[in-house]
Amino acid sequence: MIKIDRSAKPSILEKKATEWTQKLLTAATAKGKKNAEGKYQHKQIKEALIELFHGKCAYCESKITHIDYGYGHIEHFKPKSHPIYRALTFEWTNLLLACGVCNGSEHKGKKFPSNSAGGPFVNPCQEKPDDHFEFVYDQTSKLATVVGKTKRGETTERLLGLNRHALREYRSKQVRKLISLKKFAGADPEAETIFQEAQQDNAEYAAFARAIGAGASSNGE
């Protein structure tokens, strides 16, 4: 997870958010509520989120759009299903792009832990994930692991499944390549360029690449 600076609100939300919110909050039937709520899936909103997050999941940093441009969830950081957050259904600052696994019922889903339960989740658009996580590659196990260094970091990692088996297996292979690449970066300009690109916001698992660049990502040597 990396810090993302929130872009300007899409014009459709500038024009319609207040109207849509009013209709949602005053809907008298389940069908009316469903129809009103579904407006958040507007194409312009999805495209703005894809651009903002560079086609990556806001949480696990896995690329989504290279598999299917239409894939990925418009994620409500504060769940729209909670009555106290329903008014935030069309609030731009409450919307993220997430993969279907991080945002699925097995992981984030409708969860939003309170302070007393170790929450809230770390929000990559409002704070620095580095304050809550370490991104560690263990040379012995060959695993790239997101380690919570605060209570909120631990809660976010655990409930969102940021070290779930399939994700960590794939991510570890990519991070292992980056560690090897860094060894050549000082003497090979092309390797240096590729390694710098791996640290940019649009790169998959940029948090790990930045940790490698800072010399703080590996142990067990």
Order of helices and strands: HHHEEEEHHHHE
Distance between the termini: 25 Å
**Total beta-strand segments:** 5
Please give the order of strands in the largest beta sheet: 4-3-5
Strand content: 5-15%
Helix content: 25-40%
- How would the global form be characterised? elongated
Low-confidence stretches: none
Evaluate the radius of gyration.
Answer: 19 Å
For the largest beta-sheet, the strand count, sense and barrel status come to: 3 strands, mixed
User: How many helical elements?
Assistant: 7
Task: Please give the domain count.
Answer: 2
What structural category do the secondary elements indicate?
A: alpha+beta
Q: Summarize model confidence as the mean pLDDT.
A: 94
Keywords:
2 domains; 3-stranded mixed sheet; two-stranded antiparallel sheet; alpha+beta
